[in-house]
Amino acid sequence: MDINLLWIPLLPFLGFLITGMLGKKIGNKSVNAIACGLPILSFVISYAAWSRLVYEGTELHWSGFPWIWIEGLVEIPFALHLDGIAAVMCMVITGVGSLIHLYSIGYMKGDPGYHRYFAYLNLFTTFMLILVLGDNLLLMFIGWEGVGLCSYLLIGFWYEEDANCAAGKKAFIMNRVGDFAFLLGIFLCLAHFGSLDMSTLTDATAISALSAETLSVPLLGSVSVISMIVLLLFIGATGKSAQIPLYVWLPDAMAGPTPVSALIHAATMVTSGVYLCCRLMPLFEAAPAILAIIAGIGACTALLAALIAFGQNDIKKVLAYSTVSQLGYMFFAIGVGAFSAAFFHVVTHAFFKALLFLGSGSVIHAMHHEQDMRKMGGLRKQLPFTHLTFLIGTLAIAGVPPLAGFFSKDEILFAGYQQGFLMGVDSAALFWGISFLTAGMTAFYMIRCVALTFWGESRVDSSLEGKVHEPGGWIGFALFMLAVASILGGFLNVPEFLGGHATLGHFTGLHSSAAAHGAAASFSPEVLHAAEWKSMFLSLAVAGSGLLLAFYCYGKGHSLRKRFTESGVGRWLCRLSQRKFYVDEFYATVFVRPFETMSHLLFILIDRILIDGILVSGSALLTRGLGNWFRKMQTGFIPGYLLTFGCGVLLLVYMMLSLIQQGGAQ
């Protein structure tokens, strides 16, 4: 059976067109059928393509049409390609995305922008699929910018509130910084590779041919072309995937509807930077110095975001900083050459983080849009199903076996342990220590989130106490399916030392990275398996310690927690965490306010003085003055007109005679 890849992104795009243009006329039920049904059909086609790849080993390609063509210089087609990594991403995008579409039917019920919301959600799905299926870097960039546009539209979906609009603008502007670097990376690829095709950019021969070429970069000196390309692409990834220093937009993105946070800002779009690195794995592996930077930024981002999550009281903000932290884990894995582990965590994270966000949405829906955990407590009685699914997601992200997060996070930590302690790379050992500590912190702040929301005595306002109820219907269905995925998702890539075959890694081709092979070839299987067991027990120990400490502090250890938060150091640390280490204030002081001041000065000098004052008002004054002067000549006195006319004629005759005399003299 022939499978046309174009239908995978085209179906949700048709949903966008229909719901966007006809949504008000056809009614909400028709919007539900179209906006949810077409992504589900796209999932069915993605599954068929994935099955063909699994059973026949046939990669699919849609040649499309010539897109950009300059004879002798560049040929860029609009073409789609599906291999292992793209197939898995398509399954995640359309599978998790379809569940979130269904969840939105219950969550967005009665919203005046109902059809507009689903149109945006369909458009996002389209662009995300183009991003992962694009056969060249420029087409990927079109999808990259498209998902950024949809993120902006959905963050500010409730645009009646200024704070939502400000959050959307912040996300859009911060991402433009990274996207500018991405564009520069694309130009460098085109200049030095002569092509933007993924096959060319990942070709070992082409990469080797460029390995000796260098560029002269201001402040950096002589830099290899490969390193510069990888660095620029990574800067683009830090914007989209919220890494230091461009991470501050993601927590503010929680201003959008909660299903948007689950789909765009947890499960799919924010992992596109990780996908970019995995897609161009051979290119990144050719720049080991940049990989070390990536590992450091990933580990530091994971730690910083976890520290900030400790002090947040908004349930969605806790999950937002948790997302930033988990993305840091993925980049740490890329930095140590464990591309397979990073991609595996992309998949499992999509399951349990979407579950956690949708669980928080269920709580917010039941609490009539209250998000402050200090005004919750004791909700497990009124929301038993939501409590159970949220707890499953919490244990999965904490790394409790055999849930999904245990397998993927353990694989990342082992990759760092292997490079840091078996291979003796000091920086990797340091970054592994940071990531190892962050694993325990993740378990702690997530149990804190569960405890403040569902356990203990109720702090719910008396006016809401009797109104809290368990959402059912599609909300419950989506939570159930994601809970199952969070329980079973880790078995997609069980490592060999636990009796598995690392199926996902082999299927995507990421398991066969040069870095992974080089590390494995240096040690016997017995030594590697012993190290894996040791790493696993260490990760279980730190996660268990974080869980037990959180259970104690938010259970019987109230006095200990109170003494710490009221002590001088504890109060200072809590304030730092709650204020997000003043990073936003630092950016506002160093970048935003000077830029606003400069913009205001330029507005006064250029707009008000030069344009309005001199060019517009000045030209008007000149025209008015000349008009007044010429107006005085219009006296209505006919002899005066005749005299002026006669003088003009005499002047013209004199000028003509002068010209004739000059011509005769020559």
Write a short abstract of this structure:
Helices cover 74% and strands 4% of the residues. With 666 residues, the protein is mainly alpha-helical. A hairpin with a 3-residue loop joins strand 1 and strand 2 (74-82).
List keywords for this structure.
mainly alpha; two-stranded antiparallel sheet; 4 strands
Descriptive overview:
This protein is mainly alpha-helical and 666 residues long. Among the domains are: 290-578, no CATH class; 603-665, no CATH class. The chain has helices spanning 7-26, 28-56, 84-107, 114-133, 137-155, 162-193, 198-201, 204-210, 225-240, 249-252, 258-267, 272-279, 281-285, 288-310, 315-335, 339-366, 384-398, 404-422, 426-454, 462-465, 474-488, 503-508, 514-521, 525-553, 558-566, 568-578, 583-632, 638-665, and strands spanning 60-70, 74-82, 214-217, 221-224. The strands form two sheets. A two-stranded antiparallel sheet has the order 1-2. The longest helix is centred in the C-terminal third of the chain and has 50 residues, at 583-632. The relative contact order is 0.07. The model has no long low-confidence stretch (mean pLDDT 90).
| Poorly predicted runs | none
How many helical elements? 28
Spatial sequence of strands, sheet with the most strands:
1-2
Give me the secondary-structure category: mainly alpha
Radius of gyration: 31 Å
User: Beta-strand percentage?
Assistant: under 5%
How much helical structure, as a percent, in the residues?
over 70%
E-strand count: 4
Name the average pLDDT: 90
Distance between the termini: 91 Å
